[in-house]
Amino acid sequence: MPSFDFTHAPGHLIRRAHQVSIALFAQETAAFEVTAVQFAILQALIDTPGADQITIAQSVALDAATSGSVIGRLEVRGWLRREADPLDKRRKLLWLTAQGRKAANQMKSPVQKVQDKLLEPLSEDERVQLLALLRKISRL
């Protein structure tokens, strides 16, 4: 029986594309020492300041356990603050600090470069199609 041709398998190609994306992200944002997930959380907090930790985790597609450690690292860096909800002490509400907002805003241009580089080999129609297909797969 012949081997499985993983080089043409969607899962393998998605993994490779993810590796390229992460490598480009690391290269463009090296000065900030930040991960793509940390950047996403910072951006989510710009959009929804004071949101609870679970809502922020869901908005960036993270499980609660992972989000807690990522949020903890951002808190240690002084980029966000976490407070207990006065109505429910178990809920943790999040806000960017001034330092976190500044860092998040400074990262936008390098992160946009990553997105542009990822789509560079594609025509405009292919870009639209790829993004639509990725959104479709992401809803599985």
Protein model, in words:
- It is a single chain.
- This protein has 140 residues and is mostly helical.
- The protein starts with 9 loop residues before the first helix and ends with a helix.
- A two-stranded antiparallel sheet has the order 1-2.
- The protein has helices spanning 10-28, 36-47, 53-59, 64-76, 98-119, 124-138; strands at residues 80-85, 88-96.
- The model has no long low-confidence stretch (mean pLDDT 95).
- A hairpin with a 2-residue loop joins strand 1 (80-85) and strand 2.
Please name the defining characteristics of this protein.
single chain; 140 residues; mainly alpha; 6 helices; 2 strands
Helix-strand pattern: HHHHEEHH
- Total number of beta strands: 2
Number of helices: 6
Largest β-sheet summary: 2 strands, antiparallel
Distance between the termini: 31 Å
The oligomerization state is single chain
Protein structure class = mainly alpha
Strand content: 5-15%
- Percent range of helical residues: 55-70%
* Strand order in the sheet with the most strands: 1-2
Instruction: Identify low-pLDDT runs.
Output: none
User: What form results from the Cα inertia axes?
Assistant: globular
Average pLDDT for all residues? 95
Structural Rg: 18 Å
